[in-house]
């Protein structure tokens, strides 16, 4: 699923307050070459089924000064591009810079939910289930 563009502080707070993990890509498309380079890679990653558990969003820093301040503010973003993972309104992690696909995936991997443990093996006997005696 393509990432969602966040267009207000209210929307930002609503989305980042979710119980599930949210990654927000902060960029400045009008003047940042690294942001321009990483945006299509971020969109490709957001479409991968292996990351369907993660909600992908973007914030254009040029258009959202109420969310972001490059000089310090509600969400200080001193450099772009910046990727932040949120849950329940709290920042859990941050990566800064043009990290390419591998860097973004490695950053996300730090927050990957643990896999469900496999079911215990069952032993079968031709006459029915086998239950070892103690």
Can you tell me about this structure?
- The protein is of the alpha/beta class and 134 residues long.
- It has one domain: Glutaredoxin.
- Helix content is 24%, strand content 26%.
- The protein has three helices and nine strands; from the N terminus they run βαβαβββββαββ.
- The protein has a five-stranded mixed β-sheet, covered by helices on one side. Strands 4-5 form a two-stranded parallel sheet.
- A hairpin with a 2-residue loop joins strand 6 (82-87) and strand 7.
- The longest helix has 14 residues, at 33-46.
- It is elongated, with a radius of gyration of 20 Å.
What labels would you give this structure?
134 residues; alpha/beta; Glutaredoxin; 5-stranded mixed β-sheet; 26% strand; disulfide bond; Thioredoxin domain-containing protein; Thioredoxin-like_sf; Thioredoxin_domain
Which strands sit side by side, in order, in the main sheet?
1-3-2-6-7
The first-level CATH class name: Alpha Beta
User: What percent of the residues sit in helical stretches (DSSP H or I)?
Assistant: 10-25%
The quaternary structure here is: single chain
First and last CA, distance: 52 Å
Q: Which structural class best describes the helix and strand composition?
A: alpha/beta
Number of domains: 1
| Approximate shape | elongated
Question: Care to count the β-strands?
Answer: 9
Question: Looking at this structure, what is the CATH superfamily?
Answer: Glutaredoxin
Strand content: 25-35%
Residue stretches low in confidence (pLDDT < 50, at least 5 long) are: none
Radius of gyration over all CA atoms, rounded: 20 Å
Largest sheet: 5 strands, mixed
Average of the residue pLDDT scores:
84
CATH architecture: 3-Layer(aba) Sandwich
What fold name goes in the CATH topology slot? Glutaredoxin
Total number of helices: 3
Order of helices and strands: EHEHEEEEEHEE
Biased composition (Pro residues): 112-123
Region (Disordered): 109-134
Keywords: Disulfide bond
InterPro entries: Thioredoxin-like_sf, Thioredoxin_domain
